[in-house]
Design goal:
By secondary structure, this protein is α+β, with helices and mostly antiparallel strands. The chain folds into three domains: about 210 residues, FAD/NAD(P)-binding domain (3-Layer(bba) Sandwich), CATH 3.50.50; about 90 residues, D-Amino Acid Oxidase, Chain A, domain 2, CATH 3.30.9; about 140 residues, Glutaredoxin, CATH 3.40.30.120. It is globular and about 70 Å long. InterPro entries: FAD-bd, FAD/NAD-bd_sf, RIFMO-like. This is FAD-dependent oxidoreductase.
Amino acid sequence: MSAEPQVIVIGAGPVGQSAALLLARWGVQVLVLDQRPGRGSGGSKSICQQRDVLDIWAAAGAGQVAEEGLAWTTARTYYRDRELLSWTFEREGPLPPCVNISQTRTEQILDAAIAAQPLVEVRWEHEVTDLTQDDSGVTVHCGQRRLRAPYVLVCAGARAQAIRAALGVTFTGETYDDQFLICDIKADLPGWENERRFYFDPVWNPGRQVLIHPCPGGTYRIDWQIAPDFIPSDADIARKIRQVIGDRPYELLWHSTYRFHARLASRMRVGRVLLAGDCAHLVAPFGARGLNSGVPDAENAAWKLAFVLNGWAGAGLLESYHVERHAAAVENLEVTGATMRFLVPRTVEERMRRRAVLEGGRVDEVDSGRFAEPFWYVGSPLTTPEPSRPFAGRPPKGAVCPPSPGVILPDLAVPGGRLRDITRDGFLVLLGDMCDSSLFVQVLGKVITAPLAVRGLAEIDGTGSLAERLGAGPDEAWLIRPDSHIAAILPHAGPESVAAAVGRALGGFPDI
């Protein structure tokens, strides 16, 4: 690395890799530290990657994840041998709603993108033992070695106890007693190639659950809930696989056991240090809300750190990282907590309710995991509310949330690519037909130093249909953040109201 790092990222897993690439995209010099001797291999680990995370990786130069992943379409849920319900994702734009791909392969793709990025250096065998900070930066202690940068982003995973302790951050929560056995197998399973299957109380795992996910290359992930004290032998594993797939040839690629955790850091920002991913929050994996929340952490942190480092916003913008992403983690814990109470009931009342729901076929109450969604910054201090555009609340499972302030911009196809392709280089103002683009450019250019573009909606697609698809009025201005979230929708908009909304979205609001 020819220059001193502006940000040190601790942890070279997918969240740390994503953060490094996104920071470099803003021209920030990044040093990534990891305590391991090098990149490990083996095991699919986190496999379900949601559409909006694929979008972030595409912006970071890792669009190959979406290209290689298996885009499953249907989720089926069974009770014993009876199908209770199925649902499909709502298709929003060019990217698939989600893909399955092993975390090992995702890390390889991100590593290749990092290798092509001169602003990022990765150093292995650097275990961080302490952090100290002052008014000008952070000193990272790696044994006897000392490294320094203006800011640090910690993506060191769940076992980052020493770092959290150094920052005075608690990590309270609980660990579930039941174990889960996961296996990666390669097999020919006709009809299962594009479906996620969830079984409550099947005859081959009575009283517990089994989850089956298709993956690329004819591979499958099978996940069994097992007893807390059960230690599966090779013969146990073979028997369990046979019970699921029958008398078919298969190859066992990897297996492991684990327990679920539900924990949340007390703070995700401490001075010049930000926490992201599993070191800040742990949730049960049903609904794939782990990595799919860690990567948005990385994106949120990256653009805010870059704006502060480049002098486009004050340091107060960094506190909004904690406000927004801590709220996202709280929601994920609430959603996954409800799922776990249904999957692993702990009280007589919870067990009776689950049995009544399953045996009565009350499909609206069956909870096998609400799939990951982007968090909507409706209550964020960066968002300008608009009474005529209220947040519609959580949409039906698999559906897309209608646009409103705080919600992520729909990823629609437009000539030459996707709508979000033009949102990643700064703030974007989208204007209806009745708005004078040249006037907005003239006024905003005098008061905003941060990167900002002004585009007419009709100009983008040349037909006027984009405004209709978004539901945008002819006199409205939509302000889009660098992470594609809608910061404001302003009816009867003028340049002054847009400038005020940009100022708010840059952290220019009181009491933060």
